Amino acid sequence: MEQSLISLERMRTFVRIAERGNLAAVARETGAGQSTVTRHLRELEEALGVSLLTRTTRRTALTDEGTRYYAQCVQILSLVEQASQEMRDTRQATAGTVRISCTGALGVLHVSRLIYAFQDENPDIRVEFGLTDERIDLVRDGVDIAIRLGPLSDCAMKLRSLGESQRMLVASPEWLRRNGPVRGPEDLRQLEGVRMSRVHGSDRLVLRSARGRNHAVPFHGRLIVDHGLAARDAFLAGRGYGPAHRWLIEDCLRDGRLEHVLPNYTLSPVPLSMLIAPERTNLTRVRLCVDFLAEGLRQVPGISR
């Protein structure tokens, strides 16, 4: 084995190819040129004496040996970055970029303000903030921290529970005047709702009474939206009633623009979690941001432990 050909640079190139699945994309990302990326991969495979990737005109996939070697390379590169980080002085340790992804409405209404405050305290940290309600791959997309609503099954990421997001039924006073008083779950059957797309089970509501009895009623409506802020706007415009996270509509309840429908009944809460890319957890700037956001989000109305 030509040990001289196994370098951190070649390992990094291989890891990025494995994560992006495309040599041309890695070449554009690194600015090294596709011939250099191809050469690094070829030299690494020659030094190891195995094929790490299978390549066709359309896709690149890891071999069994490549899968094992990728996991080891990620650990090695993480240790190298961690060692380098620990050798820097305090100012350098809290400098650099933190990449954050967050579900859209929560990010706009609450997380963005926490990021501003975090940067005020840590002026050397650059934050890249992405908003999406889609589940992303932290490693593939180069994200350090993801804040997500709902149950999560990605055990490869470090998960930190932030609590539960409380929900309630709301509607505008105008809509309630038009449709008459709502006294119980059965009154909802014939009423027009504002539904969220891509939400499992959004075609029915399950309400729990103060005595602990569940009431399931159909939930239908002509307006279906894919963003929490669009749902909030629809409620305010009197387009229907519907479930909403308390943090989404707290200010509207406070000033009377929306009203709590059936306050004696509750909706099940939704888990709120933070995912952290495992190889980034030991970076000081990421740890600082994780702790700051976790503490700040627990102060958001409607987030309970």
User: Which regions contain 5 or more consecutive residues with pLDDT less than 50?
Assistant: none
Largest sheet: 6 strands, mixed
Number of strands: 15
- Secondary-structure content class: alpha+beta
Strand order of the largest sheet: 4-3-5-14-6-15
Distance between the termini: 54 Å
The helicity comes to 40-55%
Mean pLDDT rating: 90
N to C succession of SSEs: HHHEEHHEHEHEEEHEEEEHEHEEHE
Q: Count the helices. How many?
A: 11
Query: What fraction of residues sit in β-strands?
Result: 15-25%
Q: Radius of gyration in whole Å, from Cα?
A: 25 Å
Q: Which shape, going by the Cα principal axes? A: elongated
Task: Write up this protein.
The radius of gyration is 25 Å and the shape is elongated. The protein has 11 helices and 15 strands. A hairpin with a 5-residue loop joins strand 9 and strand 10. The strands form 5 sheets. Strands 4-3-5-14-6-15 form a 6-stranded mixed sheet, covered by helices on one side. It has a 3-stranded antiparallel sheet with strand order 12-7-13. By secondary structure, it is α+β, with helices and mostly antiparallel strands. 41% of the residues lie in helices and 23% in strands. It starts with 7 loop residues before the first helix and ends with a strand. Helix 1 crosses helix 3 and helix 6 crosses helix 11. Pfam families: HTH_1 (PF00126), LysR_substrate (PF03466). This is Transcriptional regulator. Keywords: DNA-binding, Transcription, Transcription regulation.
